[in-house]
Amino acid sequence: MNTAPNRLARTLAKLDAWPAAVRPLARNLALRRAVPFTGTAKLDFVRLDTEVAEIAIANRRAVQNHIGGVHAAAMGLLAETATGMVVGMNVRDDCLPLCKSMHVDFRKRASGAMRARATLSAAQRALMVAEPKGEVTVSVVVTDEAGVNPVECEFVWAWIPKTPKN
Fold first, then answer.
1. Based on CB atoms within 10 Å of each CB, which residue in 102, 147, 153, 163 is the most buried?
2. Separation in Å, CA 118 to CA 29, 32, 94, 95
């Protein structure tokens, strides 16, 4: 894992000391507990660091559509989670990340399991550390088991200062 700029990154960095065989399971359990809907869909957090978030979803009955592929909503969840996690690994502890917009174009029929890989540039990461408020367009590529990109996505994420709890 890269540097740990915030609480999420520091928490996940602690798992690096765990044996490699149990690390993925521990990461999945921790993140599915923190974001329960990702547990409902059984997303697999393949890679998480300050530069890249890679998330996978198996093509299983609970997330399938009427033609046996991963449901459109599950594809959107996959891409949103990947972009949100890479933003979450970089946003300052005193800020709250928010998905400002998502645009998903379905281009081809997907086959099998799917994977989303979201990335932030060095400039985007630096902006998130330097500014208490802003927004970035997060690059994400979604592929299916055949290596095809069945959907094209664009996500804009904002971050704003957290408001103190009364």
1. 153
2. 21, 18, 23, 20
Number of H helices, E strands in the chain: 5, 6
Q: Burial-class residue 37 by CB neighbours within 10 Å (0-12, 13-18, 19+).
A: exposed
**Could you count the other beta carbons within 10 Å of the beta carbon of residue 150?**
20
The single residue listed with the structure tokens 């630096």 is: 126
DSSP 9-61: HHHHHHGGGS-TTTHHHHHHHHHHHHSHHHHHTT-EEEEESSSEEEEEE---G
| Full-model pTM | 0.89
In order, the DSSP letters of 120-146 are --HHHHHHHHH-SSEEEEEEEEEEETT
Between CA 80 and CA 99 the distance in angstroms is 8
- pLDDT digits (tens), the chain, 166 positions: 445 678 888 888 888 889 989 988 888 888 888 787 888 889 999 999 999 999 999 999 999 999 999 999 999 999 999 999 999 999 999 999 999 999 999 999 999 999 999 999 999 999 999 999 999 999 999 999 999 999 999 999 999 999 877 6
Residue 82 is given by DSSP the state: H
